[in-house]
Sequence to fold (177 residues):
Amino acid sequence: GAALLWLFGRLPHPGLRLAGGALLVAALVRLAMNPAVLTYQPRAAAPILNWYLYAYGIVTACLFAGAWLARPPHERVAGVNLRALLASLGVVLGFLLLNIEIADYFMAEGSRRLVFEFRGNFGRDMAYSLGWALYALTLLGAGIGARVPLLRYAGMGLLGVTLLKLFFHDLFQLGKH
Fold:
């Protein structure tokens, strides 16, 4: 998809933008909406450098590259701002990748099913909170640097949710230990 958007810069045919955007959205849907993806790979020996980072990371990078390649005045496809759509989907898939990597890191060795749990393991709960906070601060910084208000609002919203989770869930669990 990103390659087709790059090719559009060299050969301005509107079908290339449409096909490139559609391929990138299809890749996101395949990874984000298919629960079977979470059972493809048993827990790897290397907890971070794994299949999830490869598959989700490449699609995330391609979504951001596609957003960068869909520059004005050719960012609109069928009335949709392709640049904003691909950048937004890249942010969503990046957040999903962060959560998958945390879940994989704390998964039992030899397990074949990735499960998202938010209780029973204080270290995992805090890893989610710290990961979410760092992601929120990254969004906030990128929104300030790029002067994109929606990105700043997304960062502030995620930071707010993280603080709520920290105070109402994580600290409550700390009192039990």
